[in-house]
Every structure is written in structure tokens, then in C-alpha cells.
């Protein structure tokens, strides 16, 4: 098995069958994405790394009971989100009072990676970044998952713990808020969102 070219489906099946190399491949393939998302949920490096380690330990320990045909990326993201919130909620980390509805989602959007001419779009991109930071926490999160992680609505619903209909409504409100702030058409806004990608956090 060439792990560098193996599909997620093949890796998952191999992991379920106790293939340690496949487990390590999943870890290395998704650690950066999990860390990126985790640090947006709560800005505590030690906590996020600890939760990710615990997540993978649990994954390996329970490998024999894992469901087949799992979409790995949404599965890991929703597992991480739940683990972070549970750890904060149980008071294992002494931080500010935690409430999932009001807890800020740290969305450090950046225009570093643009796919269309930056000379022409730079100002609009900067305007978009400022507008993104005016959204509430859940609006930031749905925009990040939809337009930066490029997940479908079903996956986002699983991750955020809401219905697909709820994701549609939340996304629509977030996009409308951005349009109102920026005074642009839907087409222009979607084009600008498509020109950005989330940065790699160091």
C-alpha cells in the first residue's frame, strides 16, 4: 500500500483492520487541518494539541468498532469540536466561562493566497476581511467551514451540531450580513470568498 496515494476510504478501512501505518498516515494527513480548526475554536496551543492526541488515541483504541465508509475529514472535525467543547465545559481548563452559543470562533482570515489579480482585488479583499470579523462566532464558523474548508452542508451540520436546514439559514444570514456591510452583490461576494484561502497557522 502506497500511503501517499491511498484514498481516505482505503486508509480508513486499513485503520479499522488494525494497520498501524494507515493510522499514522491519517494522523499526518489531517493533523494540520485539525490543529488549524482547533485553534480557531479556542486559542490554547497546549489544549488543542492535547485534545488532538487524545482524539487519535481513542480512534486507535476503538478501531475495531469504528463505522465503515466514513468521510474522514468531517468525522475528525466534528470529533475535535466536541472534544474541545467538552473539555472546556467540564472545567478541566481554567479559562473564561464557556458557552457554545457565545464562545468566539477565532477566524483569522487572510488574503495571503489569492487566485485572481491581487492588484485589482486587494482593497476589496481587505474590505472582506474586515467584514468577516464583524460577524458573530457561529457565522464566522459556518463561513470558514463552507468557503475555506469547502465542506458540504451535511458535513457542516454534523460538525456544528445543527440541522442541514439550520446550516442553510445560518450561511444565508452570514452572507447577507457580509453583503450589507460591504454593499456588494452576491456574485461579487462569492467571487471574493473564492479568492481567499485560510492560512496555515504556525
Written account of the structure:
With 202 residues, this protein is mainly alpha-helical. Helices cover 64% and strands 0% of the residues. The longest helix is centred in the first third of the chain and has 22 residues, at 20-41. The relative contact order is 0.12. Mean pLDDT is 80; it is low at 92-99, 111-118 and 198-202.
List keywords for this structure.
202 residues, mainly alpha, 0% strand, disordered C terminus
Tally of strands: 0
Give the terminus-to-terminus CA distance: 31 Å
Q: Give a quick account of the main beta sheet: strands, pairing sense, barrel closure.
A: none
Structural shape? elongated
User: Would you tell me the structural class of the helices and strands?
Assistant: mainly alpha
Residue stretches low in confidence (pLDDT < 50, at least 5 long) are 92-99, 111-118, 198-202
Order of helices and strands: HHHHHHHHH
Number of DSSP helical runs: 9
Percent helix = 55-70%
Short recap of the structure:
By secondary structure, the chain is mainly alpha-helical.
Helices and strands in order:
Layout: H1 8-16, H2 20-41, H3 45-61, H4 72-89, H5 118-132, H6 137-148, H7 153-160, H8 164-182, H9 186-194
Amino acid at each position: 500500500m502506497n500511503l501517499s496515494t491511498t484514498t481516505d476510504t482505503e486508509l480508513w478501512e486499513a485503520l479499522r483492520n488494525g494497520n498501524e501505518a494507515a493510522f499514522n498516515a491519517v494522523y499526518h494527513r489531517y493533523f494540520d487541518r485539525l490543529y488549524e480548526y482547533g485553534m480557531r475554536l479556542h486559542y490554547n496551543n497546549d489544549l488543542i494539541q492535547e485534545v488532538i492526541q487524545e482524539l487519535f488515541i481513542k480512534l486507535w483504541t476503538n478501531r475495531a468498532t469504528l463505522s465503515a465508509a466514513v468521510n474522514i475529514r468531517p468525522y475528525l472535525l466534528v470529533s475535535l469540536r466536541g472534544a474541545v467543547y467538552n473539555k472546556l465545559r467540564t472545567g478541566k481548563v481554567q479559562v473564561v466561562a464557556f458557552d457554545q452559543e457565545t464562545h468566539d470562533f477565532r477566524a483569522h482570515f487572510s488574503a495571503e493566497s489569492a487566485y485572481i489579480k491581487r492588484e485589482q482585488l486587494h482593497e476589496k479583499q481587505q474590505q472582506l476581511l474586515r467584514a468577516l470579523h464583524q460577524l458573530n462566532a457561529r457565522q464566522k464558523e459556518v463561513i470558514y467551514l463552507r468557503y475555506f474548508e469547502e465542506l458540504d452542508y451535511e458535513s457542516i451540520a454534523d460538525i456544528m451540531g445543527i440541522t442541514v436546514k439550520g446550516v442553510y439559514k445560518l450561511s444565508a444570514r452570514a452572507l447577507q450580513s457580509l453583503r450589507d456591510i460591504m454593499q456588494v452583490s452576491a456574485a461579487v461576494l462569492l467571487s471574493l470568498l473564492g479568492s481567499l484561502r485560510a492560512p496555515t497557522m504556525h
